[in-house]
């Protein structure tokens, strides 16, 4: 029993701190509402986490690099500890990156972790985006979060580009020159943008300092804001889940944030950090001391951008060098068209959720994920997009393919020029057929059970394979998906026989909708009657 003296006794220190903070920040109600938030489990949900943790690692290592990096193009003569470069003229940026690599304690490792984390960050984001795409997690209400993610992806690419341009070595200088060429190909605005970035003629004396503030402040600042918004929205919408017994569009089945998910996430952070650190410790990335300082009159051989810029590079490498003259101005189509295609391919990603919901006419909320096979047209689009990406990526490394595999550079360029068009079409057709095949297989499994591999001989000599019926859980998972009807135009004449006007847009939408959910584009799910009929013994194997 408590007495008056008991209640007046001072609360433990931890509780007093918590009370103090709660009185000012209201954390108790905030924590109470969110600590038990449920997160569903699936291996593919960790891909966003990989992106998140590598981003944190990038920031941590980036801060360390800022302590030693000199963002200046002022010329110095090198006198550091790397012997082969003694007495060579170079920019302060390049010299300080050499110092980070050879004279700063732990500098090379941190530089390598920063660079490797950047590569893994973008790869993580890319695969995360694919996961969201192929499972339809971008559907209502998550379209805005898809857009936030998309912006993160684009900004991530440019942050990476500005980052690897900072050391002012021959490789990055070649990349910057390439970018300046692309900027200049833009009519009217190109020269202005180039002036703003380079402060005059290329390369000038300013771009490292300008890229530096863009790289360490402007872009990461915007990204951090977007990322917080992205994660708040994941919290607010709750995470999607795959279909399964007991899972509906109105609940989330999984583990609570505290303590289970937090413990897992914390461990996973250290795992990601550890793996990146090991890779950075054993695999050299960007050995600028082998490449040398940038001089505009030199180009290093085998010059390749980081992987996420390979797509842009490839588009330009395989494009014929077309040029036209208009009113005394030269329009370099060989560069301008690839630049526009690059923008277009990115724009398609951004608007896809809105286009799909317009085509399918589906305005409902979705919290249960699709299995990619059950959305064959979407899956086929995704694979076609990736195919395009890979083909152009090959084009971006045409010189390396040529030297490593003893192929002709022209043959590779022609391969890319043909498959840039043919590749996505073939991938689309093949993927859709595979998806439909898998749907048929699911149907077969539901109705006739799983092939057990056990062959039985019947008394009259016939051989049959025993099929094992599926358990209720699997039956549920294989039949939980919804099947849509395509959007119809409806009758073109009204009840009085008067012709109704149907716009070209409506017609296009109906055709596309048929492409998504028409008769040949999805396999009808087994009905309960069919299932009962077959499992009751009539169609028994
Ligand atoms: C800085 C980069 C990014 C980070 C750190 C990040 C982080 C995350 C995390 C941790 C989740 C929850 C776990 C998961 O589903 O994986 C998530 C969900 C989500 N992300 Fe990202 N993401 C990033 C970029 C992107 C991109 C590029 C897209 C798409 C264009 C995207 C779209 C989404 C969507 C729609 C969800 C909700 C998925 C669901 O509830 O199933 N994110 N993100
Ligand atoms: C998404 C975010 C970021 C990405 C993708 C990224 C990527 C890169 C890359 C690829 C390099 C070239 C590294 C090399 O091989 O030398 C680099 C350099 C650098 N980054 Fe970042 N970075 C990011 C954010 C940051 C932030 C937030 C900071 C600082 C707070 C930072 C500071 C630096 C510095 C000082 C350098 C030049 C030193 C060097 O090249 O070693 N970075 N960054």
Description of the structure:
The protein starts with a helix and ends in a 6-residue tail after the last helix. The relative contact order is 0.09. The protein has a two-stranded antiparallel ribbon. A two-stranded antiparallel sheet has the order 2-3. With 541 residues, it is mainly alpha-helical. It contains 20 helices and 10 strands. The protein has a domain at 38-345: Up-down Bundle (Cytochrome Bc1 Complex, Chain C), CATH 1.20.810. A hairpin with a 2-residue loop joins strand 6 and strand 7 (329-331). The radius of gyration is 29 Å and the shape is globular. The mean pLDDT is 91. Helix 7 (143-165) packs antiparallel against helix 10. Bound molecules: protoporphyrin IX containing FE (2 copies). One protoporphyrin IX containing FE binds at residues 58-59, 62-63, 65-66, 69, 97, 100, 111, 114-115, 118, 121, 156, 159-160, 163-164, 166-167, 215-216, 220, 223, 286. Its cofactor is heme. Keywords: Membrane, Transmembrane, Transmembrane helix. It comes from Streptomyces gelaticus. The chain crosses the membrane at residues 45-69, 113-134, 146-166, 178-199, 211-236, 265-285, 326-355, 411-431. Its EC number is 7.1.1.8.
């Amino acid at each position: 029993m408590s007495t008056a003296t008991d209640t007046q006794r001072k609360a433990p220190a931890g509780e007093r701190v918590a009370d103090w903070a709660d009185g000012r920040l209201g954390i108790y109600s905030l924590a109470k509402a969110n600590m038990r938030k449920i997160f569903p489990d699936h291996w593919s949900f960790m891909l966003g986490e990989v992106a998140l943790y590598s981003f944190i690692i990038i920031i941590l290592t980036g801060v360390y690099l800022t302590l030693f990096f000199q963002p200046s193009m002022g010329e110095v003569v090198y006198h550091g500890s790397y012997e082969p470069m003694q007495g060579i003229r170079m920019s302060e940026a390049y010299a300080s990156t050499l110092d980070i690599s050879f004279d700063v304690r732990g500098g090379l490792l941190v530089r390598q972790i920063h660079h490797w984390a950047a590569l893994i960050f973008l790869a993580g984001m890319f695969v995360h985006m694919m996961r969201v795409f192929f499972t339809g997690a971008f559907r209502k209400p998550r379209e805005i979060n898809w857009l936030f993610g998309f912006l993160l992806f684009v900004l991530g690419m440019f942050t990476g580009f500005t980052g690897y341009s900072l050391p002012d070595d021959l490789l990055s200088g070649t990349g910057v020159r390439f970018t300046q060429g692309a900027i200049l190909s833009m009519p009217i605005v190109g020269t202005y943008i180039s002036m703003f970035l380079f402060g005059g003629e290329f390369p000038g004396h300013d771009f490292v300092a300008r890229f530096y503030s863009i790289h360490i402040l402007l872009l990461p600042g915007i990204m951090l804001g977007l990322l917080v918004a992205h994660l708040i929205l994941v919290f607010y919408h709750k995470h999607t889940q795959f279909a399964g017994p007991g899972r509906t569009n109105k609940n989330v089945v999984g583990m609570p944030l505290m303590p289970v998910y937090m413990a897992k996430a914390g461990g996973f952070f250290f795992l990601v950090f550890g793996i990146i650190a090991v890779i950075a410790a054993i695999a050299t990335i960007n050995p600028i001391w082998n490449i040398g300082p940038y001089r505009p009159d030199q180009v290093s051989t085998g010059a390749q951008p980081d992987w996420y810029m390979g797509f842009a590079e490839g588009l330009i490498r395989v494009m014929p060098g077309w040029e036209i003259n208009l009113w005394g101005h030269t329009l370099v189509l060989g560069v301008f068209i690839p630049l526009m295609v690059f923008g277009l391919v990115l724009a398609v990603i951004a608007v896809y959720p809105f286009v799909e919901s317009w085509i399918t006419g589906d305005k409902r909320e979705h919290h249960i994920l699709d299995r990619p096979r059950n959305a064959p047209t979407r899956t086929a689009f995704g694979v076609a997009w990736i195919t395009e990406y890979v083909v152009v990526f090959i084009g971006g490394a045409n010189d390396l393919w040529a030297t490593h595999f003893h192929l002709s550079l022209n043959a590779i360029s022609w391969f890319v020029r043909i498959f840039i068009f043919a590749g996505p079409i073939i991938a689309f057709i093949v993927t859709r057929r595979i998806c439909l095949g898998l749907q048929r297989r699911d149907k077969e499994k539901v109705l006739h059970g799983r092939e057990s591999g056990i062959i039985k001989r019947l008394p009259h000599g016939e051989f049959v394979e025993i099929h094992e019926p599926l358990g209720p859980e699997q039956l549920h998972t294989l039949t939980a998906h919804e099947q849509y009807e395509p959007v119809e135009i409806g009758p073109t004449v009204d009840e009085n026989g008067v012709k109704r006007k149907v716009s070209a847009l409506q017609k296009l939408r109906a055709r596309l909708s048929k492409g998504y959910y028409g008769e040949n584009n999805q396999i009808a799910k087994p009905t309960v009657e069919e299932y009962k009929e077959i499992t009751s013994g009539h169609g028994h194997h």
